[in-house]
Specification:
The structure is a homodimer. Chain A is mostly helical and about 210 residues long. The first copy, chain A, folds into two domains: about 60 residues, Arc Repressor Mutant, subunit A (Orthogonal Bundle), CATH 1.10.10.60; about 130 residues, Orthogonal Bundle (Tetracycline Repressor, domain 2). Chain A is built from eleven helices and no strands. Chain A is globular, with a radius of gyration of 21 Å. At the A-B interface, helix 5, helix 7, helix 8, helix 9 and helix 10 of A face helix 5, helix 7, helix 8, helix 9 and helix 10 of B. The structure holds a DNA duplex (30 and 30 nucleotides).
DNA sequence: GCAGAAACTTGAACGATTGCAGTTTCTGAC
DNA sequence: GTCAGAAACTGCAATCGTTCAAGTTTCTGC
């Protein structure tokens, strides 16, 4: 029953305490709220010293977001391992629809999302973290298209795609919003009055 | 010689201490670096208590960015008071070129920019702050076009336009990059291989 | 000229984070 | 086996950002 077949006892124990800390943190945060729980409380519950806690996580907010590596991996995988003949942007659209905006029926995910949404510190931390994936995503896109890793069109696409959840999740129909924004990205704003000077003039009502 | 002709002595004094604090902060930060200067140091230099300091600024990073109200004002003004017949997006492009990406010859601005760029905490704070203008900008755009204030195309445009500096300033030719990204926004990514599934397939080289 | 609001002060907290000096626990080499 | 050293962990104290409570000074409007 080796969960981590590769490594020795040491690393296993290390992973165990890390997990214990993360579990304790989530439990306490969900029960009492992020700001009403101190790092010491978490350390206490996990039965480690606060020093140890900070050896495993770079800060209080990070306690909530382990799993970030996997998120980035699945993001670049969506681009790299897309179906034959599917465009990069289409793959990202599909990934966005499937993974981001699903108001999950899983009650654990739901409570977690609520916690993050209701805690400003966590909201901000999440956004910062999320946008840091822009580099990796951009690189993945560029690689798929055989372009320079710092190709501007790819970097821009990456950043803009990552903005989609922020734009869509607050709307009454998130799924439709995702579609709309992707259509805008593909076809541009010119078709929507916004793009050209002369077209815009006709339709103003100010 | 009244710099603030409108208000009484009280408000003038208040503005004076606020300014004293901001000046002290910038001076110390530029000299020793943001992280090597404590809030207490700044308060000391400005000859106020730290409590007073926090009555004027919501946090340490905010000491560096007074002037944010004006930035947002000039942003929405660029949209509202654009030349006759100019499109909203064109106005924003012009504003971006004129105000954001200018590697100023003014040595003070340059040192300031370097400070922000070299300090992660400040970089992140700036980005968060910057993106908070999305709401106002989106509303301004929607108003100009006579659309609902929460129109998705306008919100998306606002957020994406605000990403432009982050995309452009790190490049060797920031001005050209601004142009490119605006062109992408207007005409969409479909023309750049990225947009459609079938076109993308032909040009891959993996 | 006075009541009250506003700006400021002192002093003490609280919580996150870091540094330091040790102790225990594993690992790899002999 | 065992032993040296690395790694994980502990306790404690310090620093720093931030806030609170209670009181003092300084303006403003009446």
């Amino acid at each position: 029953m080796p969960d981590t077949p590769s490594t020795g006892r040491r690393e296993r124990k290390k992973a165990a305490t890390r997990q214990a800390i993360a579990d304790a943190a989530l439990e306490l945060f969900l029960e009492h709220g992020f700001d009403r729980v101190s790092v010491r409380d978490v350390a206490e519950r996990a039965d480690v010293s606060t020093t140890t806690l900070f050896a495993h996580f770079p800060g209080k907010e990070a306690l909530v977001f382990d799993r970030e590596a996997q998120v980035e991996a699945s993001l670049t995988a969506a681009v790299r391992e897309r179906p034959e003949g599917q465009g990069v942007v289409e793959a990202l659209r599909a990934h966005a629809l499937a993974s981001w905006v699903r108001l999950d029926s899983d009650p654990r995910r739901e409570r977690f999302a609520a916690l993050v949404q209701q805690t400003p510190a966590l909201r901000e931390y999440w956004e910062r973290m999320w946008m840091r994936h822009a580099g990796a995503l951009s690189a993945a896109i560029a690689a798929e298209l055989g372009r320079e890793p710092d190709d501007l069109a790819c970097s821009a696409m990456a950043r803009f795609v990552l903005e989609v959840p922020a734009l869509a999740t607050t709307r009454h129909d998130p799924l439709a919003s995702v579609e709309t924004v992707f259509d805008l990205l593909i076809h541009g704003w010119q078709a929507s009055q916004l793009g050209s000077g002369d077209a815009a003039e006709d339709t103003r009502e100010a």
